[in-house]
Amino acid sequence: NITKLPEAYQGKLKIGNVEVVEGTVYTLSQVTSSSFVFEPAIDFVGKVYIYWNGSDGTTFADDEGTIQIQYTNNAPNLLTIEKVANKDSDVDITLVDFQNAFQDEGDVLKEIEILTLPDASKGIFKMNGEVLAPGKIQASAFSKLTFEPTKNFQGTVRANWNASDGAAYSGSESQIFINYENTPPTLNSMTFTIDE
After folding, report:
1. I need a surface site. Which of 67, 135, 146, 154 has the fewest CB within 10 A?
2. What residues have CB less than 8 Å from 193, skipping those under 6 apart?
3. From CA 41, how far away is CA 9, in angstroms rounded?
4. For the whole prediction, is pTM greater than 0.70?
């Protein structure tokens, strides 16, 4: 007898392909031929309790039994995002760049947090045409970040970021590196005609 089920937001208990109804009594042959399976809700993290009772065919036990299931979440790992650009060139950091740097088996990128930005003397990050400030951005609302370098800037730009799968952020922040290289000058040929 399944006396109490978990909350609906946690998931569903099934026997075979049929969802269990609280208070239903199952025979031993039913349980033997088709196991109980708990299907957690997407992204659910926490403890699930299922309460049950059993009978010897005549009476049920005085005290209920408890099944406890613990769902844990593995925090994501983050890779560095690296870009190389020529002097005075804008650089886009797309959602795909963040997704490729986000490693979390079974989970997807849900939120990005920009922790620090480069010194303004090197240039500025923008999103949707607005100057970016440190803060959290939902992946579903993310378009792209664009770094606009200061004219003639050469060197490395760094910004720190973190990301979440919706349940936990990475335990270690990561970086965006943009390396600006000097574009070698182009020389045009010159032709001289000299009269003798």
Report:
1. 135
2. none
3. 7
4. no
